[in-house]
C-alpha cells in the first residue's frame, strides 16, 4: 500500500503535476485538433520518460560503467575534482561546505591518502558569485581530517573541467608529479579523462560517487516521475554532450 501511495503522490508535485496537466490538455485537444494533440503527446511522453528513475539510471549507469574502479592504484599524486560548494554555511571548523558530489570525491581522496600516503591535489574554484571556493574549503576540511598540510595541494581558480585539467597540469609540472590518480564522480569520469588527456596527462581513473546501483531492477517506483530523476537524466545528457563536443574538436 505504501508504494501505491508514493506512486500517486509523485503526481502531486512537479514534474509529475505538470505531466498530469499536459496529459489532460492532450485529451482536451484530441477532440478539437489531432496534430497539435499528437505533438503535445510526444512532448508529454518525453517529459515523463526523462523524469523517471528507470530512464535516468539507465543513462547514468552507461557512463558510470565506462571506467571500473581499480583494485590497486599506482601513482604519485591524488587529483580530486570539485563539484560545487556553498559559501558562508556553518561547518565544524569554519564556513562553507562542499556539495554532495564534491564531498564524496573528497572522502574517497582522503581514504586513498590513508591507504597510499600520496599527496592530494584538489582542483576547483569559485564558480558563481554566491558559491564557495571549492579548493579552499576542501583544504580546510582535509586539514580537519588530520591530513598534513605538506600533503595538500590546491588549485582554486578553475571554473570547469577543461580548466581543472589545464591548471592542474601546471601545478603537477611545478612539483614534478607525473602519475596522477584522478578522482571524480563515475558519471563525470569519461569527460574528465578526455580533458586531462587533451591537457597532456595520462591519468589512472578512480571513479567514485556512483548514482546508479550495479544491477538495475524495474519496479513501480522506478516509473514514477520525480525532480531527482529528471536531474539525473539531465546530468547524464550533459556529460554525453560534453564528450561529443570534445571528440568533435
From TrEMBL:
<dbReference type="InterPro" id="IPR014729">
    <property type="entry name" value="Rossmann-like_a/b/a_fold"/>
</dbReference>
<dbReference type="GO" id="GO:0005886">
    <property type="term" value="C:plasma membrane"/>
</dbReference>
<keyword id="KW-1133">Transmembrane helix</keyword>
<keyword id="KW-0812">Transmembrane</keyword>
<dbReference type="GO" id="GO:0043164">
    <property type="term" value="P:Gram-negative-bacterium-type cell wall biogenesis"/>
</dbReference>
<dbReference type="Pfam" id="PF02698">
    <property type="entry name" value="DUF218"/>
</dbReference>
<protein>
    <recommendedName>
        <fullName>DUF218 domain-containing protein</fullName>
    </recommendedName>
</protein>
<dbReference type="InterPro" id="IPR051599">
    <property type="entry name" value="Cell_Envelope_Assoc"/>
</dbReference>
<dbReference type="InterPro" id="IPR003848">
    <property type="entry name" value="DUF218"/>
</dbReference>
<feature type="transmembrane region" description="Helical">
    <location>
        <begin position="7"/>
        <end position="30"/>
    </location>
</feature>
<feature type="transmembrane region" description="Helical">
    <location>
        <begin position="36"/>
        <end position="56"/>
    </location>
</feature>
<dbReference type="GO" id="GO:0000270">
    <property type="term" value="P:peptidoglycan metabolic process"/>
</dbReference>
<keyword id="KW-0472">Membrane</keyword>
<feature type="domain" description="DUF218">
    <location>
        <begin position="76"/>
        <end position="242"/>
    </location>
</feature>
Amino acid at each position: 500500500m505504501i508504494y501505491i501511495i508514493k506512486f500517486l503522490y509523485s503526481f502531486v508535485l512537479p514534474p509529475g503535476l505538470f505531466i498530469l496537466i499536459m496529459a489532460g490538455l492532450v485529451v482536451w485537444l484530441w477532440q478539437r485538433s489531432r496534430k497539435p494533440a499528437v505533438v503535445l503527446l510526444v512532448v508529454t511522453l518525453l517529459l515523463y520518460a526523462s523524469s523517471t528513475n528507470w530512464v535516468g539510471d539507465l543513462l547514468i549507469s552507461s557512463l558510470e560503467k565506462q571506467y571500473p574502479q581499480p583494485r590497486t592504484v599506482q601513482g604519485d599524486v591524488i587529483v580530486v575534482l570539485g563539484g560545487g560548494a556553498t559559501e558562508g554555511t556553518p561547518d565544524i571548523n569554519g564556513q562553507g561546505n562542499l556539495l554532495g558530489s564534491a564531498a564524496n570525491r573528497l572522502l574517497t581522496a582522503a581514504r586513498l591518502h590513508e591507504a597510499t600516503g600520496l599527496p592530494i591535489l584538489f582542483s576547483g574554484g569559485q564558480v558563481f558569485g554566491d558559491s564557495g571556493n571549492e579548493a579552499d574549503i576542501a583544504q580546510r576540511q582535509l586539514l580537519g581530517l588530520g591530513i598534513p598540510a605538506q600533503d595538500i595541494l590546491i588549485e582554486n581558480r578553475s571554473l570547469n573541467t577543461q580548466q581543472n585539467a589545464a591548471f592542474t597540469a601546471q601545478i603537477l609540472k611545478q612539483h614534478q608529479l607525473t602519475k596522477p590518480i584522478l578522482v571524480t564522480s563515475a558519471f563525470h569520469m569519461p569527460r574528465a579523462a578526455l580533458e586531462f588527456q587533451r591537457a597532456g596527462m595520462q591519468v589512472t581513473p578512480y571513479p567514485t560517487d556512483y548514482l546508479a546501483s550495479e544491477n538495475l531492477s524495474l519496479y513501480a517506483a522506478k516509473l514514477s516521475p520525480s525532480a531527482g530523476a529528471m536531474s539525473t537524466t539531465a546530468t547524464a545528457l550533459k556529460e554525453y554532450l560534453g564528450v561529443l563536443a570534445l571528440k568533435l574538436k
